[in-house]
Amino acid sequence: MGGLCSKQISQGAQRILAEGVGSFILCFAILLSSETDATNAPTFYAAGFTLASLAYGLEHIGGHFNPAVSLGAFLQGQMSVLMLLAVILSQTVGGSLGGVLGNVLRATPIPSYNPPDLGKAFVVEAIFSGGLVLVSQSVGLFKNSQNPNSFFGVSLGFFLSAGVSSVSVISGGAFNPIVGMAVDFATLPQDPKTFQDLWLYFLAPFTGSIVASIFSRAVSGTTLCTSSHFSPCFCSTIHPLNSHTTTTYLTDTLTHRCTPWSTTSGQSRPGFAGAAPAAAGMRRRLRRRTGSLWMMGECLSLPPSASLLGHSS
Amino acid sequence: MPFIAPISEFVGTFFLTLVASLKSSDPTGPTKALSVGFILCSMVYTFDHVCGADFNPAVTLGVALRMGRLFKDLAKILTIILFQFGGAFAASTVAFLLQGYVEFPAPTGATGQVGAVFFEGIWTAFLVYVVCAVMTDITDKEQRSTSARFGHSRSYHGLAIGFVVIAGILCSAKSGAGSGGCFNPAVGISTIAISNKWQNFWIYLAGPFAGAVAGASFFTLLHLDRSISLDGSSDGGGAESVPISQYTFIDDYKASKLAMGVPQGGAYGSIALSPPKGAPTSPKQAFL
After folding, report:
1. pTM (predicted TM-score)
2. Mean pLDDT in chain B?
3. I need a labelling partner for B171 at 20 to 30 A (CA). Which of A77, A98, A311, B217 fits?
4. What CA–CA distance (Å, rounded) separates B75 from A45?
5. Would the CB atoms of B49 and A152 count as touching at under 8 Å?
């Protein structure tokens, strides 16, 4: 591990920049497409199709354009804490700029929006943000390597469109902290109190993201750790047919190849319970060998594909 | 992990029913049809690697008929249908708590109940036919060996299924067929039950299930040369048989991959190649 090499730094900088630019375009499109009356049909499709095209355009860098999705990627061991904070900062700056610029270009500024019922708004924001994180983790990042499917952008965009059109009367349908923030920035001149419900657009998506990441870990059929900049990633894999064996892999950050690290057999406790001691032992070994305390992403998953693990040849 | 396929069906049906039962923000336009089709497409892509991604008891029935597994895997099929109804009821309850009522299908057209049940049946038959075509029918040997799908033969299956539902809901408007556009017993029955309006519920059971039988039969008739057997042996015909069923549970995954000849790198990696004592010896033992 040692120091950071230049390739890692440039990869990280590219990713941070891509997140900012993508968030800028997403918020810009949402602000410009919003109608001033209640039926917001253009926004549903503008948001969804913009997200789909951004996902396709920035696929090679792995854009999220959503702090909730980034948090999910962090929980899956895909990013380090430092990278998560940098990405969220970049998304916030980009999204706010996009919102303000979008509002400047509009003929009529969008009206200030506050959800009528905060409890219901919280519930729907959490449910659909969780679904978005689930879709993103399933199709966007993880399944691609094992189960190639080029329709990941369509899935993401369609989910966003369907969600926004269903609940935009309840919560506004952001499912994304930076979209809530961009709308608040845009409406600040007319409504100084517009930031009072901003906590909801942060808390609800993050709640949904945590739940969805736990669910995705348990359900997804692929290995959930593929890359992390600045840090290695550990994956514990429990065979679904044979919960007595836990195999731990070490993912190289540059090549994204997994190397078997250790295999624990004969765990007395079946199922996922066997993962905790394995992960603890792995952390101790990592600290001893590297002196590094960060980046332990242990991933519970079903059989990873041979190609993902670098065993294909 | 057992129950992974039923739980995935639960979550997928939850989102599908939630979108279907919440009132659309733009009730006059095609927004409702697009939302339901989009969420179905998205959910199919999300869960197609861990379950059959039906989210619809009628489709599950039709695919089971087409694969010839209805009686052999009856317990699994009933489990999946139970979880689909569970997800739909959970979503209807959430929608009811959110807005005080739920959108439920009802016959509104000039032909009344008869027209509604005919349209539901015909369009569900179309839906099941398309699902059978894009998710069970593999003709290309190379494609099958390179993709580790659960019998999912096309990458555009989600789009195809979503588009069928969009078109069906657009056709079922009041001035059209007037059935409310459901094609899904789980969505229909759960929203009707939460609304407590039972006078038309039989339409949304009889129509889709009868349509599923018709669609699966029609597909089988048109594809008699493509036989299906779970052990991977092709009993005649020009095309390769499909060794895995669409409703394969996750613990059958390894067995199906072995049947497909996919090398097992997997969780054993290159270290432990033999399972330890006490490990289940056949996928059947690990089921449920």
Report:
1. 0.77
2. 76
3. B217
4. 41
5. no
> What gap in Å lies between CA A303 and CA A299, rounded to an integer?
11
Distance of alpha carbon A74 from its chain centroid, rounded? 8
Alpha carbons A103 and A107: distance in angstroms, whole number: 8
Q: In whole angstroms, how large is the CA radius of gyration of chain A?
A: 20
Q: What is the pLDDT of residue B68?
A: 78
Q: What is the mean pLDDT of residues B156-181?
A: 90
What does residue A258 show for φ and ψ, rounded to 5 degrees? -100, 135
Searching chain A, which residue's CA lies closest to the CA of residue B34? A162
Cβ neighbours, 10 Å, residue A252 = 14
Quick count: other Cβ atoms within 10 Å of Cβ A6?
Answer: 7
- Asked whether the predicted pLDDT for residue A27 surpasses 50, the reply is yes
Averaged over A250-277, what is the pLDDT? 41
pLDDT in tens, B69-88: 788 888 888 999 999 999 99
Query: What are the backbone angles phi and psi of residue A300, rounded to the nearest 5°?
Result: -90, 125
B154 pLDDT band, cuts 50/70/90, is low
Stretch among A290-304, B12-26, B60-74, B176-190 having the lowest mean pLDDT: A290-304
CA distances for A43 relative to B73, B229, B272, angstroms: 45, 48, 53
Residues of chain A with C-beta less than 8 angstroms from the C-beta of B100: none
Residues 230-269 on A with a CB inside 8 Å of B are: 237-242, 244-245, 247, 249, 260, 263, 265-266
Could you give the C-alpha distances from A66 to A95, A175, A195, in angstroms and in order? 9, 8, 19
Q: Which amino acid is at A163?
A: G
With an 8 Å Cβ cutoff, is A170 touching chain B?
A: yes
DSSP-derived letter for residue B68 is T
Write out pLDDT tens, residues B90-132.
999 999 999 999 999 999 888 889 999 999 999 999 999 999 8
CA distance B114 to chain A (A): 30
Q: What is the mean pLDDT of residues A231-238?
A: 41
Are A102 and A34 in contact by the 8 Å Cβ rule? The answer is: no
CB of B24 less than 8 A from some CB of A: yes
Are A155 and B41 in contact (CB < 8 Å)? Answer: yes
DSSP chain A: --SPPHHHHHHHHHHHHHHHHHHHHHHHHHHHH--SSS--HHHHHHHHHHHHHHHHHTTTTT---SHHHHHHHHHTTSS-HHHHHHHHHHHHHHHHHHHHHHHHH-SSPPPP---S-HHHHHHHHHHHHHHHHHHIIIIIIIHHHHS--TTHHHHHHHHHHHHHHHHHHHH----SHHHHHHHHHHHTTT-TTGGGGHHHHHHHHHHHHHHHHHHHHHH-SS-S----TTS-EEEEEE-SS-TT-EEEEEE-TTT--EEEEEEE---SS-GGGGHHHHHHHHHHHHHHHH-----------SPPPTTTTT---
Tokens representing A145 are: 């390597």
The pLDDT of residue A35 is 75
What is the SS3 assignment for B108? coil
Other Cβ atoms less than 10 A from the Cβ of B271: the count is 13
Instruction: Mark yes or no for CB contact A123/B94 under 8 Å.
Output: yes
Q: What is the pLDDT of residue A254?
A: 38
Closest residue to A166, CB basis, from B19, B155, B159: B19
